[in-house]
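QA checklist item 7 of 12: single-chain prediction sanity check.
[x] sequence parsed
[x] length recorded as 1936
[x] structure emitted
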Amino acid sequence: MAAAQLISRGKRRTAAYLKAFLSSDSETSRLQGHQDLHNLLEHFLSPERSIDDPENLEWLQWLVAGGDTPEDFAKIVRRHDNATTCGLVWTANFVAYRCRTCGISPCMSLCADCFQAGNHTGHDFNMFRSQAGGACDCGDTSVMKTSGFCHRHGPGRNMNVPPCPHDVLAVAEAIIPRILLRVVQHFRDHCRPGIDAYEADMDAVHDADSVLTYLHDLTRMGAAMRKVLTHFLTNPQTYKNFTYGSTPSDQKRQQYQQKSQENYQGALATIPAPPPPFSMEDIPALKAELVHQTFLEELMFWTLKYEFPQKMVTLLLQMLPDNDYKDAFTRTFVQHYSRVSVVLVKASDADTMSNRVVHISVQLFSNEDLTRQMVETHQLLEIVLAALVHMMENIQIQSALHDPDHNFHMVVNCSSSTLKDHRYWPLVSDLINILSHRSTAAMFMSNSSLLSMWAEFVSLFTGMNLNVRELEHHVEFEPNTYYAAFSAELEACASPMWTLVGHCKQKNTDHLCRAVIDSCLTTLQDWFDAICFQETPPPLQVSFHFPLHRHLAVFISQAVRNGAINIDTILGDPDFLVKLMAHPLQIQVALCEIHSGMWVRNGLQIKGQAMTYVQCHFCCSMIDLDIFLLQLCTSRLDPDYCVRTVLERFSVDEFLSLAVVPSALPMNLDQELSMLQGALLLLCTLQSTRTHLGLNERDLLRQEMVSQLCMSDRTHSQLMDLMPERTTGSNQMKDFEATLKEVADFKAPNFEAGGMQQGTYTPKASVWEHEFDPIFILVRAVHRRDFQTAMDRYTTHMKQAGLMEGSESPWPPFRQLQKVLHTYQGIRKILNSKTLHGLLFCILWKALTLSQSLPEPIIYLCIYLLDMAVDPMCNKPAAAAKEDVASCVPDKRWEQWFPSSNILTNLRHEIQYISVPLPQQESMEDLEDIPEENEEDMDTASPTPSRLGFTLAPNVVRGGNVVVTRSREGQSRKSPDASTASSDSRDQGSSSCDDTSGSEPMDTTSSSNELKIEVKQSILSMLVKLHDKLSKDTDHYQPPETWEDADLKWSRGSRKHKARDGAHVIGRLLDRIAATCQENLDKLKQLCCKTTPKKFHRRASDGGDREERRRKARDKQAKLLAEFAAKQRTFLESTSMDEDDSGEGASESPEKEVAQEEEVYDCVICGQTDPSTPDRPIGRVVLLLASSVLGHRTSKDEPPRLPCSDGATLDMLNCGNTYDLRQTVMQDNFQMSSCLQSVSVGWFGGVYVQSCGHFLHSDCHKSYIRSLRSPDYQHTTQNIDVDKGEFTCPLCRQLANSVLPCQPHQHPLQKLAMEKKRYGSHKKTTPAKEQIKSEQEKAALAQKAAEASKPEEKQKADQAQASTSEELPSQEDKPEDKKDDESGRVSPEFPRSIPTPWRQQAHVMKENQTLDPKPEFQRMIKDLGEVLRKATNADCEDDSILRQGVEAIMEDITKATYPKYKVFPKSSVDESLNVFVHSVARTNLELELVQIGNTIVNHSSTSRKFGFVDLLHVLRFHFNATGMDSLWSKLTTLYSDEEERTCSVRLHPELLMLVEKRETPMVLRDATALLIQLTLSLPWPISKAHFTCIVRVLFTLLYTQSLVDISCRFSEEERRAWREAGTDKAASTERMMTESMLSCLISHLVHTPLYHDTDTDLQRVDISQSVWSPHSVEHHIQKYCIHSLRIAALLRRHLFKEELPDCQDPEQEFQTLVKFLDLQHVPPPTRGDASASRERPFTSASCLHWAVPATQMISHWCQDFTSFVNRKQGPAKLQPRGGYKSLLLKNFAWQLPCLLRPPSSYDSIFQYHRQRQCTMCCSVPKEPALCMVCGELLCMKGGCCRQQSVMECVQHSISCGAGTGVFLVVNSSTIIVVRGPRACLWGSLYLDSHGEEDRDLRRGRPLYLSEDRFRVLTQQWISHSFDHMCKRWLWHHNRL
C-alpha cells in the first residue's frame, strides 16, 4: 500500500493495521507489513524532510504504539519492566543523596525516590546538588550494599514480572533502527565542509532535539524497550545494512548516500588520535584510523564531535541499566577516549564539556570488574596516560631553572588555557577513578613502562612557574598563573599519588613501593642532569613545584612504615642527597624571605604563592613532604654540613659573625633578624615535626585538629574542610567524630550584634595543657597572626586556669622530643652538631651584649633547641670523645669551638678568645680617623652604619675585652677597658653577672690581619646571665644542692603543665642541665657562687642611690602640689564671687528661671546642648516605615504553622482582614465621613515611627544631608538613598529617613499670647483661664459634698487623703500634679472604688450608681464639649522653622507607606487625612503594646526612644478637629440649647428608613479610634481631667458594645430569660445593674433581624457557653474591653509621663487598668463590717460613669442602630454583606503576631515545596521561596511572574508586609529579608546536629529548626529592627 493511502487512513488505524501485519504468523503478511511500513518511513524519515517536523514525530509515536495511544502504550510496556537497577539519569543542579554507610564506592548516589523508599535511618548520609550530573545506583551491587536498596530495586526484586509479548513491540522493532539511521544521517549532513563548525554543531543538536527526546521517552519505558534499543545500537550487521547496504535504485538517493559518506569521513579526520608513545603503537584506540561498526560507536563519535551535548549524554547513560549495553558502551567509550583530550583542548565551553565527560566516565569506571576488564583487554591505563601526556606536551616550554642556557628540561606553560581552565581535569579524574580500584592500581605499579611514563609526566610539572626575585624595579604586570600551577600539581600529580599510596598500606605491597621509588629515582637523576644542577640553586630563583621530589618522599615514607626498605641502599650517595635537599630547602628560604618583605617588588602574587603552599588543601602534598625530605637528607648527611648549609642559605652567617663587617649588607637589620628566626624555626621543625617520622593516621588527624582549634574556634564543617586529605577514596575521616569528641567541647550558637553565630568547637582544657604544639601551628599558619592568636588564646586559658608562672607574657610551650622510627634516628645528630652549638653560643652572646635586644622569638627558639639537645633521648653523659680546642678559635668556624659533639660537655666549655679577620687597609684607616669618644658616649651609643662606613659588630664593642694588635707603623688601638664595658652592661640590664668583669685587658700579639676578642664565657654561664636579665625580681638562679635533688626537681616540674615566661623557661632548662650529670651541676654552682656577691653588692649600692632619688622626687612632687592647691583656691574664691553676682540677677529675672526648667537636647552633630525653639527646633532622628505586623495577628492561641503537606491549610482570618472587611461593609451602608470617623486603618501598611534616641538641630540636619550628597561621601552612602531623605545617624549609624521635631517648652505668658492669637484679642478671658476657674469651682463643690457625706470622726483623715480626684490637692500632697498641667492648673481626679461582690451588686448600685448622673460629671462633659467646639489645630507659629519641620515630617510620614494603604475612594481629602493621621497614632500605640507582650502583666520596660508626645504634636497640627464637638455631643447625648433645637427637627424614624445611607450608629464605632481622635482635638497641654472624662465616657460605650456582643451569642431562650430577669430587678430596685442594662438592650434589639443572622466569626471566639452565668458574662465583658483599656493606659502614660502600674496576676489586669485610668468609683462608707466590704469581688459595672441616665443612654444608642437594622422598604432594604452581625465590632483576643512556625526537620519543607507549582504561573519555580508571614509559594528571581518589571517576591513584600518580606528560600534553607528597595541575607533557621548552617545545601546534612533563631527572627520582625540588626543590605532593583 502506498504511503499516501496509509496516511489518509489516520494515525491510529494505520498503526493498528501495521501491528496486525507485523505480528502475524504468516510470512506473507509480515512481508507486506514491512513493505507498507517501509513506504511510510521513507516518507516521514526521508533525509529531505526536516528531522524536527512535529508532524513526522507524532506519526512515529502513534506507529510505535501499534494502535494504542502513546500514553497507554508506555503504560503497557512498563508493566513488563523487570529491571533490577534504577538508572535514573540527572543533570546539573539535581538534588540527590549519598549514603556513606551503604556505599561501597565514594561516587555512589541515589535519587530522592529511592532514598526515601530505602531504610537509611541513623546512617551517615547527605543530600547534595549535583555539579556535573549523575545516575541513581540503587540496585547496583558493585557500588553499594544491598541493605541500602529500595523495595523496587535489587537482585531478585522483579523476578515475577512477565516478559513482554512480541506483538507489543513488533512495530517498535521495525521503526527504531530507521530512527537511529535518521539521527546519524542528520549529524552527517551538518558536518559538511565549508560551513562554520561551531554553528553547525549547535544547529545539529538543536534540530535533533525532538527526536532525541522521543528516544529518551523510549528508554524510560523500562527494561523491555531498552533491550530492543540495545539490540539495534550494538548489532554490527544492522549498522552495516542501513549504512553500507545495497545501493539504492534512485540516483538521487545514491548521490545523497555518497555525499553522506564523504561528510562522515571528513568528520573523522577533524579529530585525529594523539601520537602514541613508542611502546604503545599497537593499541587500537591509539591508532590514527577510527573504524565504526555499530550505531552506538558512531553516535559516540558524534557525541564527541559535538562536545558532549546534554541530550546525547543523557540518552547514552539512560541505557546503562541494560548490562549488555553497558559492556558495549564502555568499550566504545574507551575506543574514543584518546580523542577526548584533543576535543577538550579546542572545546568552546571546556567546563561544561568536562562535567559531561566525567558524567559518563564515573558511571563506567566506578565498577571495578568492568574497569579491570578494560585495563586488561583494551589497555585503558595506557590510553589515559597517553592522552594526558599528549595534552601536556602541547603546552611545553623550556625551563629557566638554574642556568637557562644549559637547561634542556621542558615544563608545562602555566599561562596556557589547558592549565588555567583545568581542561586536564576530566582525564585526571578518570585516572584517579581507575586507580581507586586495588586491582588496577596494582597493575599500574607493577608495570615499569607505565611508571616510567607517569614519572615523565610528573617531571613536566617539576620546576614550573619559576619566580625570579626583583631587586630594582617593581614588576609592571603581576602574573596570575600561580593558582593554575598549584591546582595542576594538586589535581594532576598529588591526587593520583595519594590514591596509589592508599593501596600501599596493605600487606604484600612492598614490591609496589619499591617499583615506584626506583622509577622516581631514575627520573630524578635524569631531571638533575637536564637542568644542569649546580652546587646550590640560584638565590634569586624559587619554584614551589617539585612533585617528582614529593613522589619519592611519600613512597619512601610509606615503605619505611611498612618496614620493607633500607634507606641506605637507595639513598647511600651523599652527592645525590645534597642535590635532593637543595630545592626543598630553597623553598623554605624563600618562604622566610617573602615574609621578611624581600620579595615585595614581585607584587602580591608571590605572597599568595607562599600562603597557598601552606594552605590546608595543599600542605599535605607540598610543605609536609618537603620537610620530610629535608629530615630524610639531614638524617643521612654530616650534621655540621647540614647546619652550615641552612645558615648560608638563609644568609645569616655574616650576621652571626663577631668580625668587623662592612655596613652595606644585602639585608637590613629587621630582615637579618627575620631570616635568623626562620633558620632557627626550620631547625626546630626538623626535630619536632613527626608527620612522616612515626605518627599513625589517627595521631595525624588529632594533631591537625588540635592545631586548627588552637588558632580559632571552628565549626564542624570548617574543621572537616581544614583537614588535609592525604588519601583519596580512603576511610581517613572515619575517626573524625571520635577524635573531635576527645579534643574539643561544643559551644552552642549564640547571638551577637551583626549576625547569627553558629555552633563551634573549642579546645578542651587538657588540649591547651598537653597538646598545644607551637611549632606545628607555625608550620600550619597561613598568616603569622594566626600563631599570635593561638598564643593569646593559650595565655587566656592558662590565666583562667591559674597555671601561670611569672609576671611576663608566657613563652610558647614547646613540646618535648618524641620517639621517631629507627630509620630516622640520624636526625638527632643535628642537635649534637658543633656548628649548632656554636650558633647557639653566638645567639646567647648577642642576646646579652647587643644594645638592641634580640627579638624574643629568636631567644626562645634558641632555648628550645638547647632543651631538645640536652634531652636524654639525644645525649648520654660522656658519650663522645673530647678533642683539644685552641684557646683562640676562629670566627664562624663553629666546628672548631667545642671539644666534643656532646652538648652536655660543650655546655660547660668556656671559650677564651675568638679571632676575627680585620678589614682591608682602607677600612682600618677610616676606623682610625673616627674621632675619640668618651666613655659615656661609648656606653650610651653604638656605631651605626649611618655614622661609619664599617663597624665592629655590636657584640664586639659591647662584649668582653677586645685587644687589637697591629704591626702597621707600630700603632695600636685598644677598646674600652673591661670594667667600663661590664659596668655599662649591668647598667643597661644586658648582663647582671660577669665573672670576667674585674680582669684587665690583655695585650696579646697576633697576626697583622686579625682581631682577638676576649670572651671567657660558656653556654652555661650565658644561660645563667640571660636568666637574671629576664628576671624582674632580685632572686637569681639557685641550682640544686645534689644531683639527686636536681633530678627530683626536674621530674616534679615536668609533671606540672604551666605557662612560663622566659626566666622560668630558662630556669627549667638549667634544672634539666643540672640533672644530666654531676659535672654540669658543679659548674652551675660555681657560676652562681661566683656571681652572687657581686650581684648583691651592686644591687645594694644601687638600692641606696635609688632611695635617695625617690626621696627627692617625692619632695619635689609635694611642693608642686602645694603650689597648685593655692592657685586653685584663689581661682575658686574669685569664681564664687562672680556666681553670687550672677545669682542675684538671676533671681530677679523669672524668664531665666523658666528657661532653666526647659528640657534640653544634645545635638549629635554640633555637640551643643540647647532647648528646642520655634526658630531653631531640635528633632529626633527617626525611621519611618510601613508595617503590616498588626494585621497578621490571629485569634488562635496556637501559632500558625507552615504547611508542608497537601492536607495542611492556613486560616486566612486575621486582624487586618477582619477590620478591612468590616470597614468595607460599613462604607457600603453608612456615610463615608461618618464611617472613616468610626474606624482606624493601618492594620496593613500603617506607619511606624522608631528612633535611635539621638537629636539633631534642623539646620545641622540639612547641612548633614547636603554633605552626604557630595561626591566625597558617595562611598559611605552606597546602601542608602539620600535623595529620598535617608541617612545614617551620625552617632550610632542606624538608618533614618526623617527628623521628628521636639515641641518647644511654652511659658505661661507665651501660652496666653498663643491663645489670644488663636481665639482673637476681643476675648476678655481665654479658654485656659476659664478652664482653670471651672476646674477650681468644681473641685471646691466636690470637696464640700464629700465632707458633708462623711462622719465627723473621719473628716480629718479624709482631708489629708489625696486620692479623691474631685478635691483640689495641695502641692505637697500631690507633687505629681505639677506634671499633669504645665500651665499651673491643678487637674482634679475622680473617685476610685474598691472591689464589690457580684451578689451585692444591687446594694452597691443603690448606694453609688443612680439613674441620675452626677452633676459635676455632666458639667465636665459640657465644659469639654465647649473646648472641642473651639478647638483648632494652629499650634505652630506661622512661617516658623518649627512649622516647616512639622509639615516636612508629615509629608515623610505620608510617603512612608504605599498609596493603597492611605487612599480611600469616595472620601474627601480632609476625611482621608483625618483617618490616616489618627491611625498613625494608633498604629504606634498598638505596636508598643505588642512589643511589651500585649499585656501589662509582668511587662517589660515601656520606655521608648522616640517621643510619642512629639509625634502627637505633629499629628494634631494636621488633624482637622472640626466636627469633634458634634461627635462628643452624640456620644454623651448632652446638648446645648442650640443643639437641642437642631435635634428637635430630626427626621422621624419612618422617614429615616427611606434614606439610603446615614451616620454610623454609636454602637458600631471603635472606642479606641474615638479616644485618639478626641485626644488629638484637645488643646495642649491636655488636662488629665479632660482625658479621664473622655476615657470614662468611652468606657460606657465600650461596655454597651460588649453587652451587644454578648446578647448576640445568647440563644433565644437565654435572651428571653435575661430580658425578664433584668426587667424585674429594674422595677423593684430602681437601680441599674448589669442584668438591667442587658435587659434594656435586649428589649430594644429583640425585634430586629440582628438576632436572626448567623455569624461564624462569633462562634470562633473561645467563649462558647451552653448557659451564660453572671460570672461568664462578667468575664466576657472584661475580655472584650481590656484591649482598649491597655491602649488608653499607654496613651495616658505618654501624655502625663506616668509609669504603667505593676501587675503580676493576669486575673487582676483589668482591675489594675481601671484603677490606673481612674474609672473605678470610691466606695461609700459602710455601716457594717468593713472587712466584708473589702472581700467583695470586683465587677466591671462599678467603673461605669453615665453622662445621662443609663436607660436613656442605652436607648439612644440602640435606637440609632435599630432604625438602621429595621429598614424594610425602598433601596435601604438591602442587607449588609455578611449579615448585620458583620457590622458589630468584634474585639477578638488577638494574639501576639508571629511568623509561620516551620517544621522541626528541613527535609519536610524541601521535599514538599521544591515540587509545588506557583499559583500565578502554574509551574514549578526554579528558585522557590516561601513567605514566612502568610506561607505563599513564590518564584524568586523568576521572570515568569514579573509585573511591570517587578518580580514576585518584591510584589509580595508590598502586598503582604507593606514593603517588609521574610522569605525562606527552599533550595538554600536561608532567610532573605526584603525591606523596601533593599534586601539582605539574614541567615538560616535550620542548623545541623553541630549547630551549623548549610547554606545552599552544599553539605546536605540533616537540618533541624533552631528555636532560638526562630525566636530572634520573629522578634526582629515584630520590633521592626531588621534595618539596624542586619548589616549587609543590597539594592534588589525589583529582581527578587
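[x] summary fact logged: The two ends are 60 Å apart (CA to CA).
[ ] second reviewer sign-off
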